[in-house]
């Protein structure tokens, strides 16, 4: 296990980058805690795999350093970093049996056969392949081969870090849930530093202690699932996490009031003067329909998804999503919405603005 430090790290695939836009990975400084489980989350092309490959040594950064427990490994080859990496598509030795594939990393390091056999059996149980150990890998399905790759990555207990690059892409949905559970158990039991790349928010939020959200080559927020949900630091985090994502509406904010195209909503906090493009963001879970209060909307449709209802509405040309309870009645005359002031975030040029302080409740002096 190792604490991984990213010091002034950035990378461009161009030979002579001229400016920030030429960098696939914008400048990053961060410590990855020893023994923590992280998920790198973002859409395709945001820099997730670039960052993972720099950490593993498959890619040399354009600038900055990588340190493992304070030791500079920026120029160290992958083999000297003592990491295990599992890729998006399975990498196995087709001519070997499943058992020999799983045993290979241990035998390559001279471990005793009794230990190898015990550890292979343990991992085979974990990935559900105990009855396939004697089979050659060549004839197996893609998802079976990926399970071998996962198992081979997990078979060693002494690695500095386990790196996973979209490892469940070819796995069927039910097995994805089982393998995520097993990865969580592995982390709990052995405390490996784990970094897991995915574009799937469910995978990220259920696997990681902390999620690293990336957008356009930049880390826009690192936080727990609760922090990402309640206080998205960037509008992209609000869009990307949640289903539906956060409602974002242009506004003019003065003190503890947001002005929306002729309508006014109260805010729980007070804000100073704001420059640039100002917006408010509120999760659909914190919006409710009303007959008499709030801002007027046009309700376009109601989607019953079983556990709850999603109301698709529109306000002044902007889509608004509302989540209502499964048993909640939606009347035809409910054409206004109320935002919970405690859960309205304010953004300027896509970044969350820290409030000056809590505004006074109605009837009290400020």
Automatic annotation (TrEMBL):
Keyword Signal: no
Superkingdom, natural source: Bacteria
Keyword set, alphabetical order: ATP-binding, Cell membrane, Membrane, Nucleotide-binding, Transport
Cytoplasm in keyword set: no
Gene Ontology MF: a single term: ABC-type ferric iron transporter activity
GO cellular component labels: ATP-binding cassette (ABC) transporter complex, substrate-binding subunit-containing
Domain ABC transporter residues, every copy: 4-241
UniProt-listed InterPro entries: AAA+_ATPase (IPR003593), ABC_transporter-like_ATP-bd (IPR003439), ABC_transpr_FbpC (IPR015853), ABC_transpr_MalK/UgpC-like (IPR047641), Mo/tungstate-bd_C_term_dom (IPR008995), NA-bd_OB-fold (IPR012340), OB_MalK-like (IPR040582), P-loop_NTPase (IPR027417)
Family that this chain belongs to: Belongs to the ABC transporter superfamily.
PANTHER family recorded: ABC TRANSPORTER ATP-BINDING PROTEIN, MALTODEXTRIN IMPORT ATP-BINDING PROTEIN MSMX
Name assigned to this protein: ABC transporter related protein
Upper classification of the organism: Bacteria, Pseudomonadati, Pseudomonadota, Alphaproteobacteria, Rhodobacterales
């Amino acid at each position: 296990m190792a604490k991984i430090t990213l010091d002034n790290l950035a990378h461009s695939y161009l030979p002579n980058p001229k400016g920030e836009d030429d960098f696939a990975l914008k400048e990053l400084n961060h410590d990855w805690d020893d023994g923590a489980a992280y998920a790198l989350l973002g859409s395709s092309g945001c820099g997730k795999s670039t960052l993972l490959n720099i950490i593993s040594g498959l890619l040399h950064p354009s600038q900055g350093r990588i340190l493992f427990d304070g030791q500079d490994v920026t120029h160290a080859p992958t083999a000297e970093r003592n990491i295990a990496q599992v890729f998006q598509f399975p990498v196995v030795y087709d001519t070997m049996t499943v058992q020999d594939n799983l045993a290979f990393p241990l035998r390559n390091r001279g471990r005793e056969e009794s230990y190898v056999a015990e550890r292979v059996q343990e991992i085979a149980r974990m990935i559900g392949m105990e009855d396939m150990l004697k089979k050659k890998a060549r004839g197996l399905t893609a998802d079976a081969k990926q399970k071998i790759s996962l198992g081979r990555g997990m078979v060693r207990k002494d690695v500095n870090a386990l790196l996973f690059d979209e490892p469940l892409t070819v796995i069927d949905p039910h097995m994805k849930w089982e393998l995520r559970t097993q990865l969580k158990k592995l982390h709990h039991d052995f405390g490996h530093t784990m970094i897991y790349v995915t574009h799937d928010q469910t995978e990220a939020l259920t696997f990681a202690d902390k999620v690293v959200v990336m957008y356009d080559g930049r880390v826009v927020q690192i936080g727990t699932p609760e922090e990402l949900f309640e206080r998205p630091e960037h509008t992209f985090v609000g869009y990307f996490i949640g289903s539906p994502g956060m409602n974002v509406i242009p506004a003019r904010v003065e003190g503890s009031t947001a002005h929306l195209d002729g309508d006014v909503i109260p805010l729980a906090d007070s804000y100073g003067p704001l420059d640039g493009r100002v917006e408010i963001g509120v999760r659909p879970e914190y919006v409710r329909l009303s007959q008499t209060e709030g801002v007027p909307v046009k309700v376009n449709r109601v989607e019953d998804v079983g556990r709850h209802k999603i109301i698709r509405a529109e306000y002044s040309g902007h889509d608004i999503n509302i989540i209502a309870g499964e048993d909640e009645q939606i009347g035809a005359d409910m054409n206004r919405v109320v935002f919970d002031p405690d859960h309205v975030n304010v953004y300027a040029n896509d970044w969350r603005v820290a409030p000056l302080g809590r505004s006074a409740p109605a009837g009290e002096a400020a």
